[in-house]
Structure formats: C-alpha cells, structure tokens
C-alpha cells in the first residue's frame, strides 16, 4: 500500500452465541478505495459495522488486532468510540429513509457532527453546512436546511447522508451499499460523487457493493467474502482475470449494462464448492 494504514484488522471474528458469523478476517486499509463484495449474508455489513463500533447487542467481536486511525479499538470505551465516529471514520448506510432522523431538519442533522466534534461558532457551523450541502450537489442549501427527511427524494437523502458523513472531515469513509436504494441513473451519479469527494479529500473508502461493474469502475482493490471468510483480495483492474474460482464466478455473473442493478443470478454453488475444495 502506498499510504500509511488507517485501518488494520487482524483475525477479526464476530460471534453470535456459538456461531461465528465473521471468521478470522484480516486486512489493512489506507487512503485508497477498496470494495468489499460477496453474496448476501457473507458478513460484509457486520465487518463494516464492527469498524464503527456499531455491532448489534448480542454480537461479540474478537480480534488479535484492531487499529483505527492509530487507535487501539479493542480498548476503546463508548466515549472514545463516539469521538472516533464522525471525526476519523464515518459511515453511509443503504437507505436514507431509515438512517435520517424524521423529527429533525436537514440543517440540524448535517450540523450535528460539527457540534459534537469541533469548536465552532454558530455562524461558522452554518457556513460549513452550506458549503457541504453544495459540495454534495444539493441546490439551494438555505432552503434545504429547513426541510425534513420525508420531503427529499432518495437521491437527495443519500447526498444528505454523505454530507453528514463528511462534514467533520473524517479520514475514512465506509459506505454500505450506498446506492442500492436509488434508481439506475442516480446510482452512477452518487457513486461518482463519493469517488470524487474521497479523492479530493485524500480519504480512504471501503465500499460495500453487489455491483462488480460499479466496483471495477470506482475502486482500486477488491476484497471478496464468502460465508464469513475473506477468500480473496485483488486489484480491481484484475477482476476480469481473477484466479480465485469464487471471484471468477462473481465476475462472470456480474450484471451487464442491460441488466444493470438487477439481483445477481444464483451461483452454481455445487460447482463452486467442488472448485473451492481443489484450492
Ligand atoms: N444481529 C444479528 N444477530 C445474529 N445474526 C446476525 C445479526 N446480524 C447479522 N447476522 C447474520 O450474520 C450474517 C452476515 O450478515 P451481514 O449483514 O454482515 O451480511 P451481508 O454480507 O452484509 O449481506 P447483504 O449483502 O444481504 O447485506 C448473516 O447470516 C446474518 O443473518
Ligand atoms: Mg449488508
């Protein structure tokens, strides 16, 4: 990796009771754009949420090492997690309908990370909110600030989520299927926007996606999960000539432009399991 690591996970395991849902996963992420792919239920979201200290109650994390922005995450208390979230690492979720607070205005919600993480005057905060809303391509920020989430379209909601995630200048963005609730045209635009902002701000990105075409266009590296394990890591440019059988299957099943955005076809699992055994 060309840059210093921002996230180091060593043998990350997530349990629910005696079941391990994520199994001994290790990776290092810097100021680069990395995709996390794999079929539904493979453990992508759990892995991402564990990097934000946001695992649901009942889930337990174990790791040999978990370093986030230079801090040892295994010893962080809730107060330190709160400092880290938003200021160093931020996350955008799949659906703004559920992630935004329906009872607060857009202005209040975009401003909140600044109230939590930075010492600025009210006027300075307002100015930053206005700039950030413009940076994510939302017109008429002053009007928008007084609106509520239900008054926004999906694409606007996701731009607001992005504004909330980026306003306190985090070093790393985790985006968990940030465009899957959007229509096709809007997907490309929001992803291109994320790509551009991450580059301009010299941040790292972990993009969770089902869309390998999108991944190959916007990411530099790809990590592939299957049943809670990290099976393969490769440069995105090598996806078309991947050597791992599972990665090859995912790539060959990717939706083309015509079927873009539809569900992945079902994989030939028995053939895959046979191949994996030969590995
Ligand atoms: N709170 C929980 N308690 C118990 N099991 C859970 C919990 N959350 C997730 N799981 C299970 O852990 C596994 C991994 O879930 P995860 O949400 O990480 O999958 P994913 O790869 O993000 O899938 P998708 O692509 O559908 O979003 C799944 O089998 C899921 O049912
Ligand atoms: Mg998920």
Summarize this, please?
With 279 residues, the protein is α/β, with parallel strands linked by helices. The protein has eleven helices and eleven strands.
Mean pLDDT, nearest integer? 90
For the largest beta sheet, what order do the strands appear in spatially? 7-8-9-3-10-11
Number of domains: 1
**What is the alpha-carbon Rg in Å?**
19 Å
Account of the 3D structure:
Residues 7-252 form the ABC transporter domain. It comes from Mixta theicola. InterPro entries: AAA+_ATPase, ABC_Ni/Peptide_Import, ABC_transporter-like_ATP-bd, P-loop_NTPase. 39% of the residues are buried. The protein has a six-stranded mixed β-sheet with strand order 7-8-9-3-10-11, sandwiched between helices. It is of the alpha/beta class and 279 residues long. It has one domain: P-loop containing nucleotide triphosphate hydrolases (Rossmann fold, 3-Layer(aba) Sandwich). Strand 8, helix 8 (184-200) and strand 9 (204-208) form a beta-alpha-beta unit. The model has no long low-confidence stretch (mean pLDDT 90). Helix content is 38%, strand content 23%. It is globular and about 60 Å long. The structure holds adenosine-5'-triphosphate and magnesium ion.
